[in-house]
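Database export, one record per block. Field names are fixed; values are copied verbatim from the stored entry.
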Amino acid sequence: MKKYIQILVHKQTLTAEQAKEVILGISQGIFNPTEIVCFISLFMMRPITIQELEGFRAAFLELCLPINLTGYQTLDMCGTGGDGKNTFNISTLASFVVAACDIPVVKHGNYGLSSISGSSNVLEKIGITFSNDENYIKKCLGQAGISILHAPLFHPAMKSVGQIRKDLGVKTFFNILGPLINPSKPTYQVIGVYNLEIARMFTYLLQQTPTQFSIVHSIDGYDEISLTTKAKIISKDSELVVDPDDFKGIQKIQPYQIFGGNSQNEAAQLFMDIISGKGSEAETNVVAMNAAVAIRLVNKTSLEDAFELAKEKILNLEALQRLKKLQALCQ
């Protein structure tokens, strides 16, 4: 590890192969916690490069427990997190809405390490249990239309640094990696990022894969379409700017209207209220708009039509029914 730290201290960058070697070494337990903390901290003082991100990603995918879902044409909705906005669990809610549109979802997620309640935290609170058993994952897809892939169960390297990330309590390059290392390699991905530089890197990497993708970023720093201002959607062959003022019946909202609560219990209650059709207009619209990006990607429909369909699935409780089916499978 010392040679890699020296490279970074001298303001040089790692090659993709060197970056891969670091993650492989972490997974094998050959570096001590102090070395790992130092390595992670150096990346908090400068941006990650495309080559470094490519190497980290390659290592995680090589080490992961793979899941073979060939033939399912699945979609993942996952954000980088780390935007510091403390919103409620928008992409997780949107995933159930997308599943209600008969689009099979494999939601990759983790515990919140730089936020109060990550995807896995809120799902545990509402009775979802995690497994890396392929048959169980396929059963969930078949009966509920959605499966949850809890990252530490599939990524030994990520699990080995979990406590360090929790102790640091701030965003690290591991936040950026999360959406890129879904072990099931979904056909479609909607990825939220907290700045345009990361959006550029993700676009470059995903253009080299068969994945059909949409990367979303609100220009005020949210890693999702927040409806607080304009947002960008970058796809394989197009870019789109989404302005809330352009949508009939939608108004720009204030950050407090999508606040995620002060505890995991509050986050879970918000989740259940919104998916049960009891959310505010602002909350429902934000979830529907993010789900609409996924629906548009898969069904090749307009964003406006996709939004109306997504909102219908929330208000007629079809998204809630998907959640109830998944909960029943966890009993």
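Remark 1: Strands lie at 75-79, 105-109, 146-150, 188-192, 212-218, 231-235, 239-242.
Remark 2: DSSP finds 15 helices and seven strands in the chain.
End of record.
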